[in-house]
Amino acid sequence: MKRTAFLLALGLFAIKAHAQIPIETGFFLGTTTYQGDLAENDIEFNELNFAFGGFLRYHFGYHFKMRGNLIYGKITGTDLNAKGSLHERGWGFNSQIVEMSLLMEYHKFGRKRINEVGLFWRQVSPYLAAGLGVANFDPNIERANVAAYPGNFPEIGAKSSTLTLPVIVGVQFDLNEHWIISVEAGSRFTFNDYLDGVSKNGNPDKNDLFIFTGVSLSYYLGYEENFNLY
User: Fold this and answer.
1) E-assigned strand segments in 191-223
2) How far from the centroid of its chain's Cα atoms is residue 98's Cα?
3) Can you say whether residue 180 is alpha, beta or left, with left for phi > 0 and alpha for psi between -120 and 50 degrees?
4) Among candidate residues 182, 30, 29, 218, the one with its CA nearest the CA of residue 107
5) Is the model's pLDDT at 173 over the cut of 50?
6) What CA–CA distance (Å, rounded) separates 155 from 172?
7) Residue 123 three-state SS
8) pLDDT digit string (tens) for 60-88?
9) Domains in the chain, ordered, with CATH?
10) Is the pTM of this model over 0.90?
11) What's the half-sphere exposure (Cβ side, CA atoms, 13 Å) at 103?
12) 179 contacts 173 by C-beta, under 8 angstroms
């Protein structure tokens, strides 16, 4: 009997301790697009593709939070979106892309979620985020006019992974004490010109980048009144 009571008390303590961790966990749904050698415009709206992922967000305080992301998407591009000679070349590509990243968020207007009398205090919190990540991809190149524009593929030195520098803007909305919805858009600057498999046959002086835009839903596990957050 005493052993059962002890195990029950230990279990309740573990649940309580776990519930007090200031962490959000959630999932992301959105779109992916890219900028590179097979995209004439900064954003080709007909090349938006589905993306999804998951994340953990740790609250250091009301203003600073750290987030770990794992996001999967698809990027595509084609010369058929361009004008002039590039349109005639007719090259295109598609690739799956997976990014893992660690970000620091700054919430300028962040404040307590629980007010002085213990009631939930809903807030809207715009934020900026930046960090470091790594992305893996595998471009599949399609060429419609090989005779006029032969090219050599795969290009010597082509890589299938890169470090990324995510830069994100977003806004969070409290639905209730635990559920939070966020809307954000973020460019991923890379150190690689091969997201589309093309570099020397395109513009080797400019690296490619990709963009995730979407909505996330997260569940907050903590109770901030138990922490000395600033």
Assistant:
1) 209-220
2) 10
3) beta
4) 182
5) yes
6) 43
7) coil
8) 988 999 999 999 999 999 988 888 777 88
9) 22-226 (2.40.160.20)
10) no
11) 27
12) no
